[in-house]
Amino acid sequence: MAIYKLFPSQDATIYSRYPDKNTGLNEILSVSIEDAQDSGNTQASRTLIQFSSTEIADVINNQVSGSNWSASLKGFIAEANGLNSDTTLEVYAVTGSWNMGTGKYSYSPEYTNGVSWYNRSSSGSGAWRIAGFPTGITGSYGSVSGGGNWYTASYTQSFSYYDDKDININVTPIVNSWYSSSIANNGFLIKQEIEFIDSLQYNINLDYFSRDTHTIYPPQLEIKWRDYSFSTGSLTELNTLPATIAIDNNSGNFYPNSINEFRVNSRPEYPARTFATASYFTQNYYLPTASYYAIKDTYTNEYVVDFDEQFTQLSVDANGSYFTLYMNGLEPERYYNILIKTIINGNTLVLDNNYTFKVING
After folding, report:
1. Do residues 341 and 351 make contact, with C-beta atoms less than 8 angstroms apart?
2. pTM of the predicted structure, to 2 decimals
């Protein structure tokens, strides 16, 4: 039940309409297609995102307990328009290094000091391959050559018109290939499945927040693993309602690199009458195995870590229920609420009792 979030080391959008333009510092990443009525040719934009190999290896080597982990690429929608009933995004592992650059979409004259539709590095330097691809590597383009190179294995996510447009794609095989050094880590390329179709029905624009967004929505590589432990000692399971459930070991403020073990104290609200030599209220219980935690941003009320039956299940030891939270994936200078979900005697309880903490810069 552990979740560790990494943020990009670099990202950029490349545009076939502006094949020399660099957008490495833009606040938005675009994955779009448009029918260019002025030229008669359809145009596309694709997104490149890279995460640090050092940080990936550190998480897997020093944080993951056991070999069963998964990795998901996450992106958060800023704007979507021109959608069809169904839209599919494809994610690939990029082949060939690239340089983010320092341009923005709005800069005039445009910057050409980084990755673009034509080039990996800067204008006239390190052109993307457009023919003679090695086995297992490819690329594609319309009337304007370029647009990146990638390994052919793809990972997809489809949206219906009314679906949430956030990206959440399992990319475990790619990350595992980077970790094992089977292929070099040159990041991800995200594109639409259907591109370069000369039709007004295809003017689909999906804009996502970038690492330079200055919001709480930068792209993420989310690595998850199951560190569940169940050893109750002499404790008793909480199996009656109503109950008192509280969060302990919460100092209130944490630095971004903190790792904290939150304790979940629980007991029946109205205990059965018994003869005892110690106060009943000092006796702790553990929650049933079907118990989970979630984290919400206090201001936006959005889940930062959602309930997950595999990865946010509460562990149990001789002192009670608990979970471990890695603060690195939470934006600093914000407040967060802890929620607990548990099933007791067939009753599902979701507890949001304003147990709040803040991640602070330091």
Report:
1. yes
2. 0.89
